[in-house]
Every structure is written in structure tokens, then in C-alpha cells.
Amino acid sequence: MKAAVVTGPGRTPAYSDFPAPTAADGERLVAVTAAALTQLARGRASGVHYSASGAYPFVAGVDGVGRLADGDRVYFLLPRAPYGAFAQETVVPAAQCVLLPDDLDDVTAAAIANPGMSSWAALVDRAKLAAGETVLVNGATGASGRLAVQIARRLGASKVVATGRNRAALASLGADSVIALSGDDSEVEERLRGAFADRIDVVLDYLWGRSAELLLSAAAKAAPKTAEIRFVQIGAMTGGQITLPADVLRSAPIHIMGSGLGSVAAPRLLAAIRAVLAAAKPAGLQIAARTVPLAAIEAAWSEADSARRIVFVP
């Protein structure tokens, strides 16, 4: 079969032949129809993600949409190594396949599942969002952040605050208020302090790096000390390390946690994805996506468009 094959660390997946999979007991053979290029897929393919196995060769891609032998349309997560989602066929544990709603097309399902899960699991499983609370989405102009704004509202947030560098993009998000991350650090922190003074209950952080440092500093200085701030780390688009002064954690009730593979068990991630897929049409969840033939994966792999999801079709 044809697949996007990774032959070594740091190498771009190559469109080439790979042995076709055979399903064992408890597995399902999936004919792939659509699979999205996500940061998780990039990180595992490059070998830099903490969940990468380091074994080569393997087929890239961590999730997608396809059809089973009986014709059922399913979303699937984490195929059995060395198989992946960027292929004509893959093999997946049966428990990691989710039936798709009839009103949701393959490309939208593939595009929305992973970024939607990132905020749904963070809000439900990690932050345990309560109706009426306020959510700040740090890095809201990318595909995942845009969905996070919508999903926070769907899950009962009474107010959503969005941050990002692109002022024009921030204005289009539908958030209750926006904070530009442009300018010098003192200006940005002053804006963030104002938000925390008004009360922020949950932070969904897709950026990490310097903006996370400023967020935590602003929270420690300005947030009311009567309610805990749940800071959920999801992505690291602007840096994998931060400097965290000890007094930030001593001076305010801040609870820092992560959300992703490992911090949320696979069955719970699947439950979040199932909920996102079920809510996509009723809630009007929106994500921008464009389809690319799998044969063109090498040319598309390095494209950077955080606001629009690339979806490969075999």
C-alpha cells in the first residue's frame, strides 16, 4: 500500500510503499479516507514528542477517519505501530474506534477531532470547568485555540477571554474580550493583570514560553485570592521551557497541570473526542481545513498555517 513513511529522526515522511496491515484479534482494519496534520503528528514523526517510540521505519499520523470492512464510518486514534493514519490502510485496536455521526463529513471530522479534544479534555477532565466560570485561552488564533473559545462556551463558561499576537484574528474569534500579546512585556502583563483582576478561573495554554510566564506573574499579582486558578498546559507553540519564580506559586492559589497523552488516559481522550464529534453540528463548531492528496505530503509537511488544518486524503 502507499503511505507516508518515516525512516529516521528529523526526516520528512516520504510517500512510498509500505507493507499492508493485517488485523489481529481485537483490532480493526481501517480504509483511511481522511487524516489531519496536527502538532502531535509532526512531533511524533520528528521524534521530538515525548510519546515518540524511536523505532523506524513507521507510518506517520496519529488519528483519522475511515471505513471498516462492514462499511461503518469511524474516527480512529493511535493505530498499532508501525502503522499510522497517513496511509491507504491502517490497523487500530477496536476500542480506539468511534462511530461518526451521520451528519458529519469525513474531512471535518478528521480536522476537528484532535484540536477539539485538546480543549474538551482540558476543561472537563483536568480543569473540571463549572458552569458560569471564566476561561482564558492563551494562543486563541490557531485552529486549536479557535475551537477552545467555542468549546468553552459550549461547556458553560460565562465569559471567554482570548489572547494572541494577531489583532485582526483576535477580533474574529467571538470571545467576550481579547488581549493582544504584542508590545513590551510590561504592557502585556498590565493587560493580563486587568483580566485576572476581573477574575479568571481557568487558563488553557497553547503557547507556553514567555506568554505563560507573564500570565502566571499577572495572576499572582492581580487575581483575587479567594478562588483557585486552574492553569492547564496543552501546547508549547512559543517555547518548551519557562522560568517560574517560586513566589508566584506561594502568593496565589494557582494550580498548574498538563493535559495530553499520559496526563489524560486514552479512554478519557476518546470520550472527549466522541463528545466533540457529537457536538460539532448541534453546537456549530467551526474549523478551517483544506484537503491535500497524501501523495503531496512531502511538499505540504513544512507548511505553517496554524489557523487552517491540513487534511490528507489517500
Q: Could you walk me through the main structural features you see in this protein, from its secondary elements to its overall organization?
A:
This protein has 2 domains: 2-100 and 284-313, Medium-chain alcohol dehydrogenases, catalytic domain (Quinone Oxidoreductase, Chain A, domain 1, Alpha-Beta Complex); 114-258, Rossmann fold (3-Layer(aba) Sandwich), CATH 3.40.50. The model has no long low-confidence stretch (mean pLDDT 94). Strands 3, 5, 6, 7, 8, 15 and 16 form a 7-stranded mixed β-sheet that branches. Strands 11-10-9-12-13-14 form a 6-stranded parallel β-sheet, with helices on both faces. It has 314 residues and is α/β, with parallel strands linked by helices. 31% of the residues lie in helices and 25% in strands. The protein has 9 helices and 16 strands. The protein is globular, with a radius of gyration of 20 Å. Helix 2 (106-126) crosses helix 8.
Kindly report how far apart the N and C termini lie.
Answer: 10 Å
Tell me the number of strands: 16
Order of helices and strands: EEEHEEEEEHEHEHEHEHEHEHEHE
Number of individual domains:
2
Content-based structural category:
alpha/beta
Biggest sheet descriptor: 7 strands, mixed
- What is the overall number of helices? 9
CATH superfamily of the largest domain: NAD(P)-binding Rossmann-like Domain
CATH architecture grouping of the largest domain: 3-Layer(aba) Sandwich
SS strand fraction = 25-35%
CA-based gyration radius: 20 Å
What's the structural blueprint in terms of helices and strands?
Blueprint: E1 2-6, E2 14-17, E3 27-36, H1 39-46, E4 58-59, E5 63-67, E6 73-77, E7 89-93, E8 97-99, H2 106-126, E9 134-138, H3 143-154, E10 159-164, H4 167-171, E11 177-180, H5 185-197, E12 202-205, H6 209-222, E13 229-233, H7 246-251, E14 254-258, H8 266-279, E15 288-293, H9 297-300, E16 308-313
Parallel strand pairs: 9-10, 9-12, 10-11, 12-13, 13-14, 15-16
Antiparallel strand pairs: 1-2, 1-4, 3-5, 3-7, 3-16, 5-6, 6-8
Helix pairs in contact: 2-3, 2-8, 5-6
